[in-house]
Design a protein that fits this description.
This protein has 226 residues and is an alpha/beta fold. The protein has one domain (6-223): TIM Barrel (Alpha-Beta Barrel). Helices cover 34% and strands 19% of the residues. The chain has helices spanning 19-28, 51-61, 78-84, 99-108, 154-167, 185-191, 200-203, 209-222, and strands spanning 6-9, 33-39, 64-70, 88-92, 112-117, 135-139, 173-177, 195-198. An 8-stranded parallel β-sheet has the order 1-8-7-6-5-4-3-2. The protein binds D-xylitol-5-phosphate. D-xylitol-5-phosphate is lined by residues 10, 12-13, 37, 70, 141, 143-148, 177-180, 197-201.
Length: 226
């Protein structure tokens, strides 16, 4: 396994009336990146943010911004989110019939390419595009909403993807998203995840964002010592 462990807060769980404060809070807590969950109400039953929010967050924070496109026809919006300042553009395998070309296109835009797979999508669907992905996102909940329960069956998939990446000698990051908290964080890092997306565990912690990030990072690192 390569690469250090990163926490990537999801602003989906933040107060929508105070996104600027929410972004500043995680930046001040020492994270280097965050994830913007873009949803279109078609690929997932929820509607969230557009490129203007990505642009504002990037300009205000300077953090690495991951645009997680939970939308149909994501290839149409790669240039739009690239222009908005996203550093990583993540598309879903399930809605990308030309996934090979789309990942190439993201890289051609000078951005890091990401591919996400839902709980029902097997890891082998990535076999022929793994070399084009700078990041693989294994969804550990059904996409669309924060605050859901972690799906433990996804741990086997995380291990499978970790093995696929390492056997090929690739540097792709292995990200997980959904139900990541102090309990599941060590489980996913022990399985080989290196980037943990967390919304509820970061923004709904009564001890505050900074303490939440610290304890989540500690829990995640404890999984790498097994
Ligand atoms: C699902 C979303 C969530 C969110 C994080 O589409 O992508 O997974 O980012 O959710 P929680 O609150 O479980 O960390």
């Amino acid at each position: 396994m390569t690469g250090e462990i990163h926490i990537s807060p999801s602003i989906l769980a933040a107060d929508p009336l105070h996104l600027g404060d929410a972004v500043a809070a995680v930046r001040d807590a020492g994270v280097t990146r965050l994830q913007v969950d873009v949803m279109d109400g078609r690929f997932v039953p929820n509607i969230t943010y557009g490129p203007a929010v990505v642009k504002a967050i990037k300009e205000a924070s300077g953090l690495m911004v991951e645009a997680h496109l939970m939308i149909v026809e994501p290839e149409r919006y790669v240039p739009v989110f690239a222009e908005a300042g996203a550093d990583v553009i993540i598309v879903h395998q399930e809605v990308s019939p030309h996934l090979y070309r789309t990942l190439q296109h993201i890289r051609d835009q000078g951005k890091r390419s990401g591919v996400a797979i839902n709980p029902g999508t097997p890891a082998f669907m990535l076999d022929d595009v793994l070399g084009l992905a700078d990041l693989v996102l294994v969804m550990t909940v059904n996409p669309g909403f924060g605050g859901q329960q972690f799906i433990p069956e996804m741990l086997a998939k995380v291990r499978t993807v970790r093995d696929m990446v390492d056997r090929r000698g690739l540097a792709a990051e292995l990200e997980v998203d959904g139900g990541i908290d102090e309990e599941t964080a060590p489980e996913v890092t022990a399985a080989g995840a290196t980037v943990l997306v967390a919304g509820t565990a970061v923004y709904d912690n009564p001890s505050g964002v900074s303490a939440a990030v610290t304890s989540l990072r500690r829990a995640a690192l404890s999984g790498t010592n097994v």
